[in-house]
Amino acid sequence: MLTVEIAPLGARAAIDNMMQLYAHDFSEQWAGSERGELDEHGRFVDYPLEPYWRDPDHIPLLLRSDGHLIGFALLNAEAHSGRPTDRNMAEFFIVRKHRRGGLGTLAAHAIFALYPGQWEAAVARRNLAALAFWRRAAASDPQVSEIEEIDLDDASWNGPVIRFRVGAGA
Q1: Euclidean distance between CA atoms 137 and 158, whole angstroms
Q2: Helix ranges, 1-153 (H)
Q3: In whole angstroms, what is the distance from residue 84 CA to residue 96 CA?
Q4: How far apart are CA 106 and CA 60, in angstroms?
Q5: Distance (Å, rounded) from C-alpha 170 to C-alpha 166?
Q6: Using H for helix, E for strand and C for coil, what is the string for 40-51?
Q7: How far is CA 58 from CA 4, 73, 154, in A?
Q8: Residue partners of 151: CB distance under 8 A and separation at least 6
Q9: Pair type for strands 117-122 and 87-94
Q10: pTM of the complete model beyond 0.90
Q11: Helix (H, G, I), strand (E, B) or coil at 106
Q12: Quick one: 134 exposed, middle or buried, by C-beta within 10 A (0-12, 13-18, 19+)?
């Protein structure tokens, strides 16, 4: 059984630890650039998690399957498109052991159900697997409507942004 829960402050270390795994997975997207290098302690640069326990529009979520931690999601309201947005999927991570079995899609749908409104999921241009995932996750959820994809290549973002509405009117 999949569960989605708001992460309490005491779970920040768990998200910080999983963020290292996430950065490792994502580091292949940074090939050929200075980003994604390990520090002298063998760690990736820490992700700025403070806003997720400070700002009301930033929401840290823990994802569990049968009680076991399998990943996290970080939501905020920062629109990459420059258009009004209620929620942005800032980061989404499922550990490799639990990928490709449908848990990621179930988690995305459960998160959408908890937070209706206008959504964005911005995907780094090189991350083709994530783009395919977010296209499927949005299209396969009966609560989702008004799906559109915007291709951005400017100072604010380089890659596709999937916009969609969840809930009322879907």
Answers
A1: 21
A2: 12-26, 51-54, 103-114, 128-139
A3: 33
A4: 17
A5: 6
A6: CCCCCCCCCCCH
A7: 15, 11, 24
A8: 159, 160, 161
A9: parallel
A10: yes
A11: helix
A12: buried
Alpha carbon distance 122, 159 (integer Å): 7
Rg (CA), the chain: 16
Paired tokens of 72: 């996290």
Tens-binned pLDDT, residue by residue, of the chain (170 aa): 999 999 999 999 999 999 999 999 888 877 777 778 888 999 998 999 999 999 999 999 999 999 999 999 999 999 999 899 999 999 999 999 998 889 999 999 999 999 999 999 999 888 889 999 999 999 999 999 999 999 988 877 888 999 999 996 54
**Residue 168 pLDDT:** 66
